[in-house]
Design goal:
- This protein is mostly beta strands and about 325 residues long.
- The protein has one domain: Beta Barrel (Porin), CATH 2.40.160.
- Helices cover about 10% and strands about 60% of the residues.
- It has 3 helices and 19 strands.
- A 16-stranded antiparallel barrel has the order 1-2-3-4-5-6-7-8-9-10-11-12-14-17-18-19. The protein has a two-stranded antiparallel sheet with strand order 15-16.
- A hairpin with a 2-residue loop joins strand 10 and strand 11.
- The longest helix has 15 residues.
């Protein structure tokens, strides 16, 4: 069963190649390989975090597509995006297929664009499972300032259970806007009714970014509510700051980026009712870039602070190589 997504994807690629001489087809991807050392366990491990391929193109002036597969997500093959856009014009498009739910700035980042080797708690724990099959209406333009908006509806069964007839679905909305002086903001809402849980999860997320010159600072806050009042609300946050300094031409690397992040979350109940313990974390590191968002080396240190101190076995050093092509 695990090989079926890969087989179907390979057949789809063969079909696309027949028309490749006439239709645009672009192949991109990212490979992330890392080594981690856990300072509390005095233990190490190697991982291929991603070996992801993206196939994008257009079959006509109004139809474009994207297919995305991860050949190694910590050793597992996963079929991710597979959608078609019907483009009314440069500003408005309707998307059908399987995709990320349009929610949270940090969650929507591609693996090569992440600031740290390990994702934030918002991106990994609190929004885990936010890929689904559905429809999304997307707009990008200006309302005095550059802005974008998306509304979407999804089955609620995830990527691999697409045959169920639904009487209630998941839905989301997102809006983002660029502001003067290097500021931008986003507001997000998502309501999910996963059958594995049997009750709704409602999310509200606000993000703020500031970028000027070589500085980038961002903050994000997420509130996760459960419709049964017996489960307490969960809150998550992150604050990230980084600075990119170009290096002399004689250097092997083209620039260096020191960065710092502080993030945290309360006790988080997942779709399958497993619970993540409340914790905070300091992450500090440096990225050595050969090309921005192309090839770079990450060196990070993560210091965890659990509400229940006895659970903390996660402090670690991380060395990661990233190749985006």
């Amino acid at each position: 069963m695990k090989k079926q997504p890969l087989l179907l994807f390979a057949l789809a690629v063969l079909c696309v190649r027949v028309a490749a001489q006439e239709k645009a087809l672009e192949l991109t991807g990212v490979i992330r390989a890392k080594y981690e050392y856990n300072t509390q366990l005095d233990a190490s491990r190697f991982q291929v975090r991603n070996a992801r391929l993206y196939f994008t193109g257009a079959t006509s002036p109004v139809f474009s597509y994207k297919a995305e597969i991860d050949l190694s997500d910590e050793g597992q093959i996963k079929m991710l995006n597979a959608y078609i856009d019907l483009n009314a014009n440069e500003s408005l498009a309707l998307r059908l297929g399987q995709m990320k739910v349009p929610f949270s700035t940090d969650y929507l980042r591609s693996p090569y664009a992440q600031h740290f080797a390990n994702r934030s708690f918002i991106s990994k724990q609190m929004t885990s499972g936010m890929r689904d099959v559905g429809a999304q209406l997307r707009w990008k333009g200006s309302i005095g300032l550059p802005a974008s908006a998306e509304i979407a509806i999804f089955n609620g069964e995830g990527l691999y259970n697409q045959s169920v007839w639904e009487t209630e679905m998941n839905y989301s909305a997102r809006m983002a806007m660029d502001l003067p002086a290097g500021f931008s903001w986003s507001a997000n809402y998502y309501s999910a009714l996963p059958n594995t849980a049997g009750f709704r999860f409602n999310y509200v997320d606000l993000g703020l970014q500031y970028e000027v010159g070589r500085f980038h600072i961002e903050a994000e806050y997420l509130l996760k509510q459960y419709e049964p009042d017996s489960i307490a609300d969960t809150k998550g946050f992150l604050v990230t700051a980084l600075y990119t300094q170009p290096l002399p031409e004689r250097c092997f690397f083209t620039s260096i980026t020191p960065l710092l992040r502080y993030d945290g979350m309360g006790g988080n109940v997942r779709y399958n009712l497993a619970e993540d313990a409340a914790r905070n974390r300091w992450s500090a590191g440096v990225n050595l870039n050969i090309k921005p968002w192309s090839s770079y080396v990450r060196l990070n240190y993560e210091k965890y602070v659990y509400k229940n101190a006895a659970l903390n076995q996660d402090d670690k050093w991380v060395l990661e190589f990233v190749a985006h092509f």
